[in-house]
Amino acid sequence: MPETIGLYNLEHRYTNIALEKIRLYYSNRGVKVIDVTPAESVSCDIVYASSLFDWTSKKYVYPNMITGGTGFDPTTQLPPEIDIQELHINKGFTTRGCFRNCKFCLVRLKEGTLRVVGTLLDLWDKINPQIILYDNNILGLPDHFSLICDQARQYNLILDFNQGLDHRCLNPEIVDEMKSIRHHEYRFAFDHPSYINSVDKAITLLQDKGIMRCNWYVLVGFDTTPEQDLYRLNYLRARNQIAYVQRYHQSNMEKHFLTALARWVNQHHLYRGMTWEQYLKHPDNKHYKDLLWTAKLGEIK
Length: 301
Description:
Blueprint: E1 4-9, H1 17-27, E2 32-35, E3 46-50, E4 66-68, H2 80-83, E5 91-92, E6 95-96, H3 107-111, E7 115-116, E8 130-133, H4 142-154, E9 158-161, H5 172-180, E10 182-183, E11 187-190, H6 196-208, E12 215-220, H7 226-238, E13 242-247, H8 252-265, H9 268-273, H10 276-281
Parallel strand pairs: 1-2, 1-3, 3-4, 5-8, 8-9, 9-10, 11-12, 12-13
Antiparallel strand pairs: 6-7
């Protein structure tokens, strides 16, 4: 058994679930576990480096480090004896995987098909009522979702579904469950223009049940045009929803437009307070005046 384990989280702003499981596993066995920078890693017997995002610089990842996570290789897995650790840190997964296979998404490759891996009681510290769930498609398992809502009601917990919920899975029973629990503003995904009818149906169902506003992740820069992006955003704005622009890896030609789009939409007071055209014409945004030709694109007729 090593004497000292080092953990190197390449995105220190985010809790890395894999590293926290490694920390718990070794700490329970009397091993000293410390968070390290690359320079400090030489003092450790073993160093685990984990990255969530492939765009994060790997400049200071050294050959002697054990690496894992989507930012390195989405197929890497923790050893089973480490993966089963229950963290009780009020964040994590109750399901893994997804039954869909979207071209832009690595979840199916990384985690496989949708399955249950736990409940709120595996995550909750029994002190703080706030729990963040990273489940990628929990609505795809309606019986499990109902169980999670039962637990939230029983223990008066406040749930934050951090990923975009699948609006195509909504039905009146699921929305009734959503309405019955304490929650942060629900997030959904509007990944492609072809979903406009199902999004419209979902918003109507949610609003009829009293959930008047949700936050919609809008994927841009993958396989859509500026007109399609603006139409989705203008539509959500017209339905009194909030949006969040998620930029895929874009070319230099697209980067200027998508950066401006994200700065308009992702500052919700700007998105709610002014149209795209008004944003482009605002004195603070002179550097976007060359985009005024897009002002009439994607208008809601």
